[in-house]
Write a structure and sequence with these properties.
With about 300 residues, the chain is of the alpha/beta class. It is built from 10 helices and 8 strands. About 40% of the residues lie in helices and about 20% in strands. Helix 5 crosses helix 9 and helix 5 crosses helix 10. Bound molecules: zinc ion (ZN).
């Protein structure tokens, strides 16, 4: 769906609300009070009414839009851009394009969509053959916004102290014969990136358990925190190699780390350590759906309808 198609399909607030309701009906509405899933639709109020207890659920309630006062169309524009623009885009630019007066609500909207993306990907585990390594991302200790509710945005950059955020990067791959020179001997399938407090063995093992199927084979370098990964998966291939050759041993994690760094720094300049996971979630979500084409928008809508925190 390009911009023209998008404008034709969603020309106004009403068309966005209709589509959002359609997806909600497909996904199912759950009563917050009694967990019942049968509802009447009160069309004049645009609310669901529980058939069992009468509790009302607004169109936004229980979704990523809960408590948001922004028009549905803003959300649709943001989801459209997150779906079609390959690289991350700046929220400030989105605010300008929408023409909204305040930065904070737009910033909060995009962050919530990133959370929905992360939530969606957290429902899947990597399997078969997985490369695993740690990456270090420059982040800023200063907070972009004090709370996720976004009251005090400080857009001044470069003031806070720099930090190296530790990220566990995992890529599932499958074998593929190179057909061109310099091509990797495997194909990338899916990616996960998890920001962690430390690189202790127990932390890494917990993430392996959470993100990789136990019947997988995991390949790492000789870092000692990896030594007990084999207790969590079928097979652990650990190879001690000089740092310079790490990209030969684990070609995909290194490519993914380099691309993520380039994209993040190119657009966001300085990312707060508090929100770096959200940016990485956006990066992984898009990468994991790189062959989905126009379906990414619909999938993101489903994620948005089902995400609530
Ligand atoms: Zn109910």
């Amino acid at each position: 769906m390009n911009l023209i198609n998008f404008m034709e399909k969603f020309p106004d607030e009403a068309s966005c609300r209709r589509q959002f309701k359609l997806i909600r009906d497909q996904e199912g509405v759950i009563c917050k009070k009694c967990k019942c899933t049968d509802h009447y639709w009160l069309s004049t109020l645009e609310q669901y009414k529980c058939k069992k207890c009468g509790f009302r659920t607004t169109l936004r309630s229980g979704t990523v839009m809960e408590n948001s006062k922004l028009p549905f169309r803003y959300w649709f524009i943001a989801m459209h851009l997150l779906s079609i623009v390959k690289k991350p885009f700046s929220t400030l630019e989105l605010q300008r394009q929408i023409g909204h007066k305040f930065y904070e609500p737009i910033w909060e909207m995009v962050q919530k969509l990133r959370l929905a993306m992360g939530d969606r990907d957290s429902q899947y585990k990597l399997d078969e053959f997985v490369e695993l390594d740690e990456g270090f991302f420059e982040s800023n200790k200063e907070e972009e916004v004090n709370e996720l509710t976004g009251k005090k945005a400080d857009k001044k950059r470069g003031r806070g102290s720099q930090k190296q955020s530790k990220v566990i990067v995992m890529t599932s791959t499958k074998e593929a014969k190179p057909t061109k020179k310099n091509q990797k001997p495997s194909k990338l399938r899916y990616v996960k990136m998890v920001v962690v407090e430390d690189l202790k063995a127990s932390t890494i093992e917990k993430e392996v358990e959470r993100n990789i199927e136990s019947n997988s084979t995991v390949k790492t370098d000789g870092f000692r925190s990896y030594s007990n990964i084999k207790s969590k998966v079928k097979e652990h291939l650990q190879q001690i190699i000089p740092a310079k050759q790490a990209d030969k041993l684990l070609p995909w994690v290194h490519t993914v780390i380099a691309n993520a760094k380039r994209q993040l720094l190119g657009i966001h300049h300085s990312v707060s350590d508090k929100y770096i996971q959200n940016y990485l979630d956006e990066f992984c979500y898009k990468l994991n759906r790189r062959y989905f084409g126009i379906k990414v928008f619909d999938r993101l809508m489903v994620a948005a309808v089902n995400f609530n925190f």
